[in-house]
Predict the structure.
Amino acid sequence: MKRLAVLAVLAFGMGCYWSSPPSTPHRSVQVDLAAIPAFGNPSPRKVSSKRTIVLGRFDTVAPNPIGGLYDRKDYKVSPLIRTYFYKDGAVEVFEHVSDGLRSAGLAVLKDYVGHAEPALLDEPLRKKQPILVTATVLALQHDQIREKGEDKKESVEWEAARLELAVKVTSETGAPRLNKTYLIEGRVPWNPEFDLLKVLGWTAAERLAQDAEFLRAIEAQ
Amino acid sequence: MKKWLALAALLAGCGGKVQQGTLKGPAMAQAVNARPQITLHIPTVKDARPAEEHEGSSVRTKLFVFFLFGVHIKREGNYITNDFAASPDAAAELHTLAVESLASRGVAKKVTATSAGDFDLVLTIEHLYGTHFAANKQTIVVVSSNQSTDAVVDVHSHNYAAYGNVTLKAELIDKRSGAPRTVWTEHVTGYAQRPAEKERVREVQYAVQLATADALATLAQRVSAALDRLGVGPSGPPMVLSAAGAFPSIFAIERMSRYRDFLERVYIETGTGRVTRHEIIPAPDRYASRPGDWLLSRVTAEGVTLSVDGYESFARSLAGRYDLRQVDDAAHYHFFGVLGTAEPATVTVPR
């Protein structure tokens, strides 16, 4: 008993303490594969609008590492095997959201300079009275996860992604039309050829093209 | 006594000496051909970071099981810099670095921290920290008898890369007319990654410095782009061309490299279509266009930026011979070569 007491004092004196630590990098969330849907092949539905849409380059507040490789089937210390770095995630998603909205039939022009700022519109474009759309990436996570299969023997490998997008729609004068946050998350079987950021961007576009509030804001049907 | 010393040594791994951090890292890049036109004032930087980035966090002990003759410890979680490790006065230090960085890149004629300018650049720190994940477990079983003391030690540890994260909220306010007007607002980020070395805290601190430098480089690019769009940026006064006037005899097309580090620019003789020069330069603005797309450059062979109307007029004059289409870029025409040679467009052409 005395030994235990000495050891406990020693341990706490050294700064160690009981806790329930995170098992993911700071500001990442633990992905529950069973709780998120499988990504399909996103295909934004056809919509029409007479207005030109200027899509301002997305900015981001999301952290790095962007994600990690997890082996939940076989690990010695932690399921997290390594972490990943990618600094251009927001602009990649921006490109794919633009492609997705254009495939829906909208006249989208990307503006790389600003964040859909009315003051930065070129005069010829301003004369078209465009609707300004942009977004801030609040969260962007891309993980690779190996899990036990249903037979508990074979492993199954997944890629999972999570995108939280705060979309802003304004008139060409800056009058707000919509501020809304969208969460897109899902999983796909691991495939080295697969471009998950593209799927995320197109799924975001698909979601926007289905959302009545967004369609109303951009005067589309 | 020996086993208690061994346990003490083991537990000592829970802490560690951390040197005071600073945001000042590698030297700032110099401006290239900058022709700044306005003065820029950067007021005191606001610090709006969440409390955990001030207080920091250490890797935590998940399991602490005593056996009668040993100990098992599992530690897992995230190290996050506190104010001491990142910078005891991050706002003031970032303020100084922002002024130095934007001045050295030639964004404005004068970048000042004190006196008024044509524009104010208001900066708020939303995130600024370094971090690494850590996981290790250690088991020591001590077997002692009257004659000897033996220990069985089992250690597993895994090192992870260190990361620096900086997010600034930036607002550019035009004060030239007397009535301040916000012309640009954006979250500007800086990131860095360092290898999983033994000196992990030092690597994390270095990652914070690199992320700060990255954020300031991005800030300079974004502010330059915004000022250029307003016609008062470091690219100089835009060249005004009129449809009735003479057009340059050479035009340039350009495309961004896959990872946005370089810009490939090709100069073409307007009359003959002959390539006169081909250059690859560090991308002046890594977010200026989509990688791989050939665009009609807004820059002339002399390095002068065309005005909006000038670019439009020039494009129209070239359109009789070259295939130029506005595909999806609000500020550039896509270039598809000499008319009639490109594949039929698979892209739509919004008008």
Remarks:
- The longest strand of chain B covers residues 119-144.
- Chain B touches chain A through 76 residues (CB under 8 Å).
- Helices of chain B lie at 2-11, 51-55, 83-86, 90-104, 200-229, 308-318.
- Chain B is about 20% helix and 35% strand.
